[in-house]
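Proteins fold reproducibly. Take a tokenised chain:

. . .
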Amino acid sequence: MVQNRHGQGPNHAKRRARRPNRESWPWLWAVIALWLGAAPLLAQTDPLNQWTQRNPLPMGDEAAIAYGDGQFVAVGSAILTSPDGVTWTERNSGTTDDLFAVAYGNGQFVAVGGSGLGGSGTILTSPDGVAWTSHNPGTRGLNAVGYGGGQFVAVGGLGTILTSPDGAAWVGRWTGATDQFTGVTYGNSQFVVVGAGGTILQSGTLATATVAVRALLSGHTLQLSVGTRAGPTYVLQYKNSLADPTWTDLGSQPGDGSPAAFSDDTTAHPARFYRIRVE
């Protein structure tokens, strides 16, 4: 029998050669350890994986929510407002009708609903989510509302489509449809409405607003004059560098047909980029 220099036979040597051990694959163990250690961290750092239940008041069901002018507004069988999503306050809406949708635009919250199945429609407006004004649309119940291009659009039963620049004065639009419309949104200069039976309606293209801007630098103060039209809200935004990922709001004014004045102190910011957003 032939033995190796350690006094062991050949079969024993072969068995040792085939036996894996942790030292044979140090990089594999390191990768596994790194992955197992990183997986919980990845889950924890994604804010969309972190939700906290808020139920501050034993109110009825809330059907919709919108944000504008520093306030969240939730509507349903009651109206609740919150500046931060944590602390909520019930507001007096002045109506006992259920509210199904809310939108914000042109300095106004607009909530819509109705008095029940087959009942009349309800429209409420508020500049701050606190004090509300009721408007009678003269239609069946309304299910949804959206804002864009300087217009609110509310939709509901029997093919109802209403439009308004301010939420107070509404115009009925004829489509030829008699379906129950349940949703509306704005994008790409158009409104799209959806409803029962697979109905989808698309509006015509709204005209793109042309904004006239005059700029004057007086000392360290930049003064901007922005031409407006009634309806939209004009928001001045800035970046200190075009590489910044987002624009920051500097101020906003509702359009009324007259020039809107904005100003910015540039003492600490010798280079700054501006734009006007029309809502």
In short: Helices lie at 10-18, 26-45.
